[in-house]
Amino acid sequence: MASSTFSQSDIGSARNRLLFIHRKIPYKIAMKPLIGLIGGTGLGHALAHEIKGDAIAVETPYGPPSGSIARGTWQGIDVAFLPRHGPQHTLPPSAVPYRANIFALKSIGVTHILASGATGSLREELRPRDLVIPDQVIDKTHRRVGTFFDEAGLAAHVEFSQPFCPMLRRVLLDSSSGVDVTLHDAATYVCMEGPAFSTVAESRMHRSWGGDLIGMTCMPEAKLAREAEICYALIALPTDYDCWRPHDPGVSQHELLKEIIGNVEHATANSVQLLKTALEAIRAKPLTACNCQKSLDLAIWTKPAGMDADIKKKLNPILARYCSKQ
Ligand SMILES: [Zn+2]
Q1: Helices (H), the chain
Q2: 185 given a catalytic annotation
């Protein structure tokens, strides 16, 4: 298992070279903002064509991430792009290496993440092809490890009442003027395990819980980002009305699928435009300090002297800021 310590200067610029984290090189806390982009269904493919950069393969204590990370510049901003489902979309939601993905992004200095994901809509007003910036999550996943702090030797409990970064949400919402799309502020995203979709009874239950969107990938991604002190916001792409809303009996399954694919393509194009506008805004007005970036300050219950040395070493990119203050 590779150590998690390395310097950002060691990322280098050689195209397509592999980077393996080396234990002898000290990790440095990132000072300059670096925007991570996690592309979900639709957007993952589109962004791979938009962002040209060095492909970096990062080894982590949790194995490799979904794919190599494209490290480059987009809209004049330093970005690191990772396709959540892999370069060929081979990873189903339950098999996405969420911990490796967030750890790898943290390790190369990512400070903020703008993610995207296709969803079903649980509300009439959240129409397919609209875009939604959710503000809450209900986590129904049960086959994914959802924390970096699951080993004896270090107990930590991050505050997660607001699962998405309010500052990044605001940047996205304020960028809607540059895009010809209806952008919805605030929605509760129900994250299910999948891969099969809901039954009608489940879909109705999710609505009764106050759910507005149903998806399969937001968790534990958002929670891991908070544990890693990375600001995280999501662009949700509703592609259909899930099964709570009866389909038009005159529409065949084939036509329905064609419609969903068309909705994904349309929403994807709008998401790319929204991201471009948001990055332009960030370039014009740099991001300010945010509480997400010090989420461990009140979260770690184990005194530094009592922390397990191996865990400290393993989680060094995540713990470096906290431990340097002790
Ligand atoms: Zn934040």
Answers
A1: 43-50, 98-107, 166-174, 200-208, 221-227, 253-284, 309-314, 316-325
A2: no
Surface-to-core class of residue 161, CB atoms within 10 Å of its CB (0-12 exposed, 13-18 middle, 19+ buried): exposed
Closest CA to 34 of 102, 110, 92, 106: 110
Ligand 1 centroid to residue 248 C-alpha, Å: 42
Measured in Å, residue 294 CA sits from the centre of ligand 1 at 9
How close is the Cα of 157 to the center of ligand 1, in Å? 17
The rounded distance, in Å, linking the Cα atoms of 305 and 96 is: 34
The C-alpha angle 308, 312, 315, rounded to 5 degrees, equals 135
- Domains (ranges, CATH) in the chain? 8-325 (3.40.50.1580)
Q: Angle at the Cα of 196 (from 190 to 201), degrees rounded to 5?
A: 60
Neighbours of 303 (CB within 10 A): 8
Q: What is the DSSP letter of 156?
A: B
pLDDT digits (tens, 9 = 90+) for 253-295: 898 889 889 999 999 999 999 999 999 999 999 898 999 999 9
Catalytic residue among 150, 240, 308, 310, which? 240
Catalytic residue among 185, 242, 297, 308: 242
**Model pTM score:** 0.89
Is 242 tagged catalytic? Answer: yes
Polymer length of the chain: 326
Assigned token pair, 94: 């339950």
- In angstroms, what is the span from residue 244 Cα to ligand 1's centroid? 34
